[in-house]
Amino acid sequence: MITQNVIGGYMYLRSLIGPEQLLYAFYDMPDVIHDCMCVWFELADAVIARHQQYVTIDELFFGEDICYNHGPLISPAMMAEFLFPYYQQLIANIKGRQIDRNRHLYVHVDTDGYVESVIPLYTDAIGMGVMSPFEVAAGNDVVSIGKAHSGLAMFGGIDKRVLAQGRDAIDAYLTRVIPAMRERGGYIPTCDHGVPEEVPYQDYLYYRKRCVELGG
After folding, report:
1. Beta-strand (E) ranges in 8-74?
2. Cα(63)–Cα(9) distance, integer angstroms
3. Are the C-beta atoms of 37 and 82 separated by less than 8 Å?
4. Over the stretch 95-142, which tens digit does the pLDDT of each residue have?
């Protein structure tokens, strides 16, 4: 697969303005936010157009990080006003330039935090078909989310903290998650963030081996 990575609009705005100041700016400076998003769109569209002269894109990946441990950091109304119109135009432009018009474009949103409430928002607005990494510490459970959203491809959801607790803990956790997600389909088991340094290398290898055995 050929993946086009893009910094999502919320992460981009947060980096420009700051996480706290941005929340005020949505109310106090909406015109500035739209100006910023116009620049975001123009740059992303121009760069991707150059790539599409040579390749067909299979996946558009948004690095968004729009949630915390209780849900989204901004309201659905803010997402609908300040993010989705620009995403929709970018996706339409990408689809219109594809060399292979028959190739499906997967839209992948990556965000930290608790994601349950934003899944239908991204699905309805931009046709999101893939999400990651389902941070377990924020309350995400890929088994229950997978049941509720059967058409969503899912990456992640393996609790990084469990990997540091030894092989018995790894076995117990994977035995609950992997068979259920194998039966569901559409799931790639990966750590829900970077692997912590306290995870012994041999235990990490054991975790990967058990994923293969339980998912085979």
Report:
1. 59-63, 67-68, 71-72
2. 9
3. yes
4. 999 999 999 999 999 999 999 999 999 999 999 999 999 999 999 999
